[in-house]
Specification:
It is elongated, with a radius of gyration of 43 Å. Helix content is 46%, strand content 12%. The termini are far apart. By secondary structure, it is α+β, with helices and mostly antiparallel strands.
Length: 290
């Protein structure tokens, strides 16, 4: 076969291939376009023979009237119903709290340390005074230790001829049950309980003369006093100029009553209290800041 014939056949084959590709692209484009419509019409497909090895597909749309009915799926919102027990009146809240308190601790026998009379008002008044460095003993939410403070007499006198008394470290154990009560309460549960009774706490705080203040700020301030309290590195010494003991160090004696109470509780006990209250304070801050 001559070169010219081969070249003509090659050109003819090339155009045939190009024609097939173009027809294919047109068909695919029409199919894609028609499939994107909301209600595509039916189509009549007619085949036309171009070559023995090639079939051209021509699409002639049939005019159809199709009634479409659009339906919107309505998704009902899922509403989770949480049953909540309404809070009692502040004046009648003690009985309700007595039922609640056992759920806070696994050391239920230690709840005997809690004074269960006018509990919310006691908590509010004591905390408010505590934040200012004042101990309101008459409003303490806890009973006093059964063992009173005492010191060991010595024969040592200071420069003012005051007899010195040694600090009785063993007496710090009188606070051990209170520490155990605190340790038995999960901070998450305590925060949840606090937020639950917050409306009653706010009412009691308003009665105290703070209608526009948030009691949580006062509570955090009281906790901060404990977290910031310094722990003496050397043993404490006391004197007894009268019936009551006083700290020999005048700087310590001039501290607020709250700070002196923390000294009496003892170093190890205060460290535990700091750890517990720090965790509670942080979790409370997280919950109230959202």
């Amino acid at each position: 076969m001559e070169n010219s014939e081969i070249e003509n056949q090659t050109k003819s084959s090339s155009w045939l291939l190009i024609s097939i590709i173009v027809v294919t692209i047109i068909v695919l484009s029409l199919w894609f376009y028609m499939s994107e419509q909301v209600a595509p019409p039916k189509a009549i497909v007619k085949e036309v023979v171009l070559e023995p090895v090639l079939k051209e597909v021509i699409i002639e749309p049939e005019v159809l009237v199709i009634e479409t009915q659009e339906s919107e799926e309505v998704i009902e919102p899922v509403v989770e119903i949480v049953e909540t027990t309404p809070l009692p009146e502040l004046d009648n809240s003690d009985e309700w709290l007595r039922e609640k308190l056992p759920s806070l601790t696994w050391r239920k026998e230690l709840l005997k340390l809690v004074i269960d009379d006018d509990m919310i008002r006691r908590l509010v008044v004591f905390t408010d005074n505590f934040s200012q460095g004042i101990l309101a003993y008459n409003y303490s939410p806890l009973v006093s230790p059964s063992i009173a403070f005492s010191a060991q007499e010595t024969q040592v006198f200071d420069e003012n001829n005051q007899q010195q008394w040694e600090w009785n470290v063993q007496l710090e154990k009188r606070f051990s049950l209170y520490i155990e009560l605190l340790r038995s309460i999960e901070s998450d549960n305590l925060v949840k309980w606090y937020l639950e009774v917050k409306p009653l706490i706010d009412q009691a705080y308003s009665e105290l003369g703070y209608p526009d203040d948030d009691f949580t700020d006062t509570l955090q301030s009281a906790i901060a006093r404990i977290l910031d309290a310094e722990i003496p590195k050397s043993p404490l010494k006391v004197i007894r100029p009268s019936v009551m003991y006083k700290y020999q160090d005048t700087e310590i004696e001039s501290l607020d009553d709250v700070d002196k109470l923390l000294l009496r509780i003892g170093k190890e006990n205060v460290l535990i209290i700091k750890s517990i209250l720090l965790e509670f304070s942080e979790k409370l801050a997280e919950e109230t800041s959202t």
